[in-house]
Design brief:
Largest sheet: 6 strands, parallel
CATH architecture of the largest domain: 3-Layer(aba) Sandwich
Strand content: 15-25%
Domain HTH lacI-type: 7-61
Radius of gyration: 24 Å
Shape: elongated
Oligomer: single chain
Distance between the termini: 67 Å
Structural class: alpha/beta
Protein name: LacI family transcriptional regulator
Order of helices and strands: HHHHEHEHEHEEHEHEHEHEEHEE
Number of domains: 3
Number of strands: 12
Helix content: 40-55%
Keywords: DNA-binding, Transcription, Transcription regulation
CATH superfamily of the largest domain: Response regulator
Pfam families: LacI, Peripla_BP_3
InterPro entries: HTH_LacI, LacI/GalR-like_sensor, Lambda_DNA-bd_dom_sf, Peripla_BP_I
CATH topology of the largest domain: Rossmann fold
Number of helices: 12
Strand order of the largest sheet: 2-1-3-4-5-11
């Protein structure tokens, strides 16, 4: 029995007991085929759940080849900057870009990938965190593996465990660890973390790196120091409000994304808490607005546009059956006015 996710045109021809050329003519809509042969091919294709190689057809005959980009939320300045890099690389290659936002819903990501296969995308870029979810991993791989075998190209931005495709990986873990060291250097010894859902690999990596940096200085984070909410501005505000309601004694708060830090800044202002006079605040990513805030946000700068550009270049230059490649992009700690040296060491 042929595995459903590995069905090829050759499999359909074999089951229907016709030539490969005949199977191709039937499935491509050619009318000059005997009716009995057509019926056999269509029955075999239905029984095997065969999906035509539409992306290969597009490469051969489309006047405007397209690439698909699936991101978490294009309205988020982080992903907007990444998308600019993708668009820049696509424009150089004369490609149109189809852009979809999943709003961090794993099921939507799988559905969009399936749609892009049917829409004849010649390459797919997944721009965003993976999920700590084995069922999602298997479902996504089931979409991408036959797509790649048929000629489609794939690249991802971020860490996607067990997904064997080309990737561009920001150094989230080492960047957060370096940030912890810089904040320790300002004299801070009591910390809180505003975290996104720890089902996302990006959140896990940043949180783990920050905790490791503190642990090397003998400072341990407990669950009482972690305030988890959605991985966006509203989540940052909600997490900061929870932090404030508990009268936590932290002198420095790390939000695992700049968007969460912006929400936290709003919550601190509403509560009459001065940043950095009462509490220091740091984010991660260096979205364009970070330096224009008042106070300017301490963060870890990532080359956001380069992430998108390099992912697209990998997708366009790779081979479907070749060994997957990884490009790592380092972050840089930027100490700005939202963090200050503590008045005394604790």
């Amino acid at each position: 029995m042929i595995a459903r996710s590995h069905v090829t045109l050759e499999d359909v021809a074999e089951v229907a007991n016709v030539s490969l050329a005949t199977a191709s003519r039937v499935l491509n809509g050619t009318t000059n085929v005997r009716e009995d042969l057509r019926d056999r091919v269509l029955a075999a294709a239905t029984d095997l759940a065969y999906t035509p190689n539409v992306h290969a057809q597009a490469l051969a005959g489309a006047s405007h080849p397209t690439v698909g980009v699936v991101c978490h939320d294009v309205s988020d300045p982080y992903f907007a900057a990444v998308a600019r890099g993708v668009l820049r690389a696509a424009d150089r290659n004369g490609l149109l870009v189809m852009l979809a936002s999943t709003f961090r819903d794993p099921e939507k990501e799988i559905a969009y990938v399936s749609t892009l296969r049917r829409q004849r995308a010649s390459a797919i870029v997944l721009a965003g965190s993976g999920f700590e979810d084995r069922a999602w991993e298997r479902a996504l791989a089931a979409e991408l593996e036959p797509y790649r075998r048929g000629g489609g190209q794939v690249a991802v931005i971020g860490r996607h465990r067990n997904l064997k495709v080309d990737s561009v990986q920001p150094e989230n873990r080492s960047g957060a660890k370096a940030l912890a060291g810089a904040l320790l250097g300002l004299g801070h010894r009591r910390f809180a973390v505003l975290s996104g859902p720890r089902t996302m690999t990006t959140v896990v990596d940043r949180f783990t790196g920050f905790r490791e940096g503190l642990a090397e200085a003998g400072i341990e984070l407990s669950e009482r120091d972690v305030f988890e909410a959605s991985f966006d501005r509203d989540g940052g505000q909600a997490a900061a409000e929870e932090f404030l309601s508990g009268r936590h004694r932290a002198t420095c708060v790390f939000a695992v994304s700049d968007q969460m830090a912006i929400g936290a800044l709003a919550a601190f202002r509403a509560a009459g808490r001065d940043v950095p006079g009462d509490v220091s605040l740091a984010g991660f990513g260096n979205i364009p607005v970070a330096r224009d805030l008042n106070p300017a946000l301490t963060t870890v700068a990532l080359p956001l546009e380069d992430l998108g550009e390099q992912a697209m270049e990998l997708a366009l230059s790779g081979t479907p059956t070749g060994r997957s490649r990884t490009r790592r992009m380092a972050g840089e700690v930027l100490l700005r006015d939202s963090t200050a040296r503590t008045r005394r060491r604790r």
